[in-house]
Amino acid sequence: VMSILLHGDAAFAGQGVVYETFHLSDLPSYTTNGTIHVVVNNQIGFTTDPRMARSSPYPTDVARVVNAPIFHVNADDPEAVMYVCNVAAEWRNTFNKDVVVCYRRRGHNEMDEPMFTQPLMYKQIHKQVPVLKKYADKLIADGTVTLQEFEEEIAKYDRICEEAYTRSKDNKILHIKHWLDSPWPGFFNVDGEPKSMSCPPTGISEELLTHIGNVASSVPVEDFKIHSGLSRILKARSEMTKNRLVDWALAEYMAFGSVLKEGIHVRLSGQDVERGTF
Questions:
Q1: What does UniProt give as the signal peptide span (predicted)?
Q2: Phi-psi map region of 268: left, alpha, beta (phi>0 left; psi -120 to 50 alpha)
């Protein structure tokens, strides 16, 4: 499995989540063993000038915090794009992490009209021959394909899209199970609809709850001197267990404990879980 993320240039530099997830990228419990980031770059984000949007020359400079290699490639050259993507995949496979950058023709989205705020740049972009035509002309001139073969390929692709669009209007059932990466056995019926959503009983005996409560309020090592603040918490927890009372924290302990008793691994993730602050 290879994770690939597609970003817009302004979002890559401007959204804190990108910087934050880069810093998660090498942590033991979070790494994807390298993500390929494709940054589609037309130098503006929602018609904002780069000089008004960020302090570094390139949007991809954010990736330098983890020393990710950054490749700049012209999207008007499909073979160069393919070459860089292969290099990126090899790098990711051998080492980790990656960024690929290219230009896009439109503004922030297809509804956006960048000519209002970026007339000079977009006059230049409108003069650009679209990449499909440019590449087709090159292949035809080289004798790699004929004009007829090219037109047939375009017609074939258009037909696939049109047929899929027509079929989508007739779809009455969402075949959810087809795109779940591992359909849960018995969860869906043959039509792709979920079966009964009722849960089996999950209750456990009071004896087991008391056992978990006692373990959760004890210190596992003999003669181990713990912080007085913690000993107060443990004492209060022990009293609650004795009096058949629970608070949120003890209820969580009992939930985790009962699952662990069944031999099921529990992974805690979130703010200060290692310290047990919450």
A1: none
A2: beta
Burial of 240 (0-12, 13-18, 19+ CB in 10 A): middle
Whether residue 32 sits in one domain with residue 133: no
The Cα–Cα gap between 45 and 22 comes to 21
Rg (CA), the chain: 29
The answer to whether residues 143 and 209 belong to one domain is no
pTM above 0.90, yes or no: no
Are 135 and 97 within one domain?
no
Residue 182 — φ and ψ, nearest 5°? -140, 90
Residue 277 inside a domain? The answer is: no
Q: What is the C-alpha separation between 214 and 240, in angstroms, rounded?
A: 10
pLDDT digits (tens, 9 = 90+) for 133-192: 999 999 999 999 999 999 999 999 999 999 999 988 886 666 665 666 555 666 777 776
Q: Has residue 29 been placed in a domain?
A: yes
Domains in the chain: how many in total?
3
DSSP line for 161-196: HHHHHHHHHH--S--HHHHSSSPPTTTB-TTS-B--
* Rounded Cα gap, residues 231 and 254, in angstroms: 19
Residue 91 lies in a domain: yes
DSSP 232-254: HHHHHHHHHHHTT---HHHHHHH
